[in-house]
Amino acid sequence: MAAMYSSPDPFFLLMAPSSITFPPGNHIPFDNTGNKVGPCGPYSGMYGMNGVRVLKPGPLTLTWEESIAHVGSPFRIAILDEHEKVKVVLADHIPHDDAAKTTFFEQFYTPYHLTVDIPDVQCEKCTLQLIYFMTDKTVKCGSLLCTYYPEDSACSGQIDASEPTCFGAPNDVPCLKEDTCFSNYHTCTDVTIQGTRSFEEFDMDLQVRTGGFGDDTEGIESIG
Q1: Measuring CA to CA, how many Å separate 45 from each of 134, 168, 188, 190?
Q2: Is 168 within a domain?
Q3: For 37, which DSSP code?
Q4: Which of 15, 21, 174, 195 is most buried (most C-beta within 10 Å)?
Q5: Which residues are CB-contacts of 16 (< 8 A; sequence separation ≥ 6)?
Q6: Domain containing 64 — which CATH number?
Q7: pLDDT tens digits, residue range 68-96?
């Protein structure tokens, strides 16, 4: 898990269970289940709750902090539209720092920095989303490859309610699909992008991706 804050420059998307907070430097209190529910944890459906950042097209440095490490578990950064659906994947399969310190009580924070390219689109109500796929848990539950489905963002790891809940699952609610990435942290910050192209006409098929994709699903290879 990670924690978040916001700063004028560079842009801080700091990952934790939920969305960016104000003023800068504040960390999010740990919310084990709520922050695992997509697309934006407890701030889902609450556009503007923590303010709105205005972005210009071009390079943008993002920073997030991790407070509870999951070995081999990757990150993804995407832009959501006003309906909180994935529209643009900015960076996928971002590797985890397996040397990060970890503690259940969130005493250490490991920073990550990544520069992404904000596309030349006009979007009045968009959201930057960071997901942390806890694939170490899917490995322990017998799945070496999991797929992220928004509707299964927090579930038991089993589709059969009679099967035992996977170790580390956020709850005992049966998943809707097999081999889903059943435990994930979500964090978001709401933005306006001041570009020139219509966001609705942005062609997602032009993006280079890895893993299996549907409209907003992602194949994630479990590591470690």
Answers
A1: 23, 26, 11, 11
A2: no
A3: S
A4: 15
A5: 1, 2, 3, 4, 27, 28, 30, 35, 65, 67, 185, 187
A6: 2.60.40
A7: 888 888 999 999 999 999 988 999 889 98
